[in-house]
Q: What sequence folds into this?
C-alpha cells in the first residue's frame, strides 16, 4: 500500500469514528426525475439580523409541496398543504423571510436528477442535483441552517 492510500484509509477511519448518528423524521419524498415547480428557503431574522437563511426549505414537485427542516441530529420531512408565505412574530421582532431559490437559480421547469442526505460531525446537509448541473445544498451546522447554490 502506498502512502496516499494509507492516508486515505486513516482519514476514512477518522471520519467514520467521528460520524454523528442522524435520524430521519417523516418520509423523504420520492421526487427524483420530477420537474421542479418551486424551491423556497424560509430564513429566520431576529431584530433585523439574519440568523438562518434556510430555517425551513419548501420544495414543489408534481403539484405537492414538501417541507424540509433540521433539528440537531434530525432531518424532518413533511408534506405541506400549500405554497408557503413569509410571516412575522411582531412582539418578538422575529421574521421569516422567503427567498425563491427556484426562481433565482433558474430551477423552475428543470428535472431533479437526485438528492442525498449527508452527515457531518457538526450537522447534516441535503444536496439536490438538477439536470442542468446546478446543485442546491441545504446545510445545518451547529443548529444553523443555510442554503448554497452551486
A:
Amino acid at each position: 500500500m502506498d502512502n496516499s492510500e494509507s492516508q486515505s484509509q486513516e482519514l476514512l477511519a477518522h471520519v467514520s469514528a467521528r460520524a454523528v448518528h442522524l435520524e430521519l423524521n417523516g418520509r423523504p419524498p420520492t421526487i427524483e426525475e420530477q420537474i421542479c415547480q418551486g424551491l423556497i428557503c424560509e430564513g429566520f431574522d431576529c431584530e433585523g439580523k439574519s440568523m438562518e437563511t434556510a430555517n425551513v426549505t419548501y420544495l414543489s414537485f408534481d403539484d405537492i409541496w414538501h417541507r424540509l427542516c433540521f433539528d440537531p441530529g434530525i432531518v424532518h420531512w413533511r408534506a405541506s398543504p400549500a405554497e408557503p408565505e413569509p410571516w412575522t412574530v411582531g412582539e418578538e421582532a422575529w421574521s421569516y423571510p422567503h427567498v425563491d431559490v427556484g426562481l433565482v437559480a433558474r430551477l423552475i421547469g428543470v428535472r431533479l436528477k437526485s438528492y442525498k442526505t449527508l452527515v457531518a460531525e457538526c450537522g447534516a446537509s441535503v444536496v439536490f442535483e438538477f439536470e442542468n448541473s446546478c446543485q442546491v445544498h441545504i446545510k445545518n451546522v451547529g443548529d444553523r441552517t443555510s442554503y448554497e447554490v452551486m
Observations:
- Residues 1-19 have pLDDT under 50 and may be disordered.
- Residues 19-149 form one domain.
- The chain has two helices and twelve strands.
- The chain has one domain: 19-149.
